[in-house]
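Question: Now follow the chain.
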Amino acid sequence: MHTDATRSFPPFYTQVIGSLPRPKLVLELLSRRDAMDPAEYRARMDEMVTFAIRLQELAGLDVVSDGEWRRSQYTDELLERLGGFTRSRPFEHAGEGTKMHLVATGRIEATDPVFLEDAQFLRRHTDRATKFALPSPFLVGIRYWHEDYSTGAYPTVQHLMDELSEVLAREARALVDAGIDIVQLDDPAMTYFCDRALMSSGDTHDDRLRQQWDIDRQMPQAVDMINRILGDLPAMTHLHCCHSVYKRQSDVTGNYEPILPRLTEAKIDQVNLEFAYQGTGDATDLDLLPAHLNVGMGVVDVRGERIQSIGEIEAIAAAGAERIDASRIALNPDCGFAPGSGEPPTIDEAFEKLCNLVAAAKRMRARVQGPGSGA
């Protein structure tokens, strides 16, 4: 469905996926969150988020977020606000030795939406179309349920995902009530099915991914939960399927051929995919895009430090437009610039990349609509 803002989107409208890199000032503020007076912390963070919004507006984006600057990490922040998750599970990731990870150890505690005030602030501080992203139940189940820690609260991973579906449906409705135009579910776990090595041999650098995978069983479950959350929302709905970002690397590789045909029953408007980074999607994947879905083409590489030229971005978009109608294409970065607050891209790098994204979109618009249509 559409709001007034999304109904008037042009071809190749531009959007962020969600997160922006946090400047050192924001990182310092996050580190002091528990020690500061809550009212003072909120006021200082409000100032920072307003800057994140203005940066996106100045870059020329059609759709803006709050940069996710209030979140320490895009999934952990939700779970910590909900309650029932503790940092008690050791795991190994990216060859960095043992870390402690959040895991479900108790029942979810929150009974009211936890992101409502953040969404209201975003809506009040921009006249652009707004987006707010939530992690999917499938992602949380894969990464945050474990039989050694979670069974006392949730006997199976499905029990946790079922409750999360209800909780996230409540969150999504609250976002729309706050005036958010696009609600997005982030589901990099769905993209794990695209990695042929992971699916065939379990080869991975992340302990959390060493489990039984069954695309025929799990993909319908994941789609059903997406539909429970987004299916009846009076706003535009997106699914974001990325290959994850960690210190400029991806968790998995592989194009989208295994999963796109399985989104036929997904009650969403658009799926946002990656095409700029090596080992992700290819424009030929769009031949498999279900007919009812639009696509957000990831045409900006958020992992590499190099700034792509406007022409390079335009070439990826043009390859997509050779496969499907331009009216079905939005343009965006591959992923959030900093899903975790400590990711290495700088805010200056992100700004320059977003400006080039907008410039490439104007060129593409001129191609399909003629001179004078690039504004």
Remarks:
- The chain has one domain: 4-369.
- The longest helix spans residues 347-369.
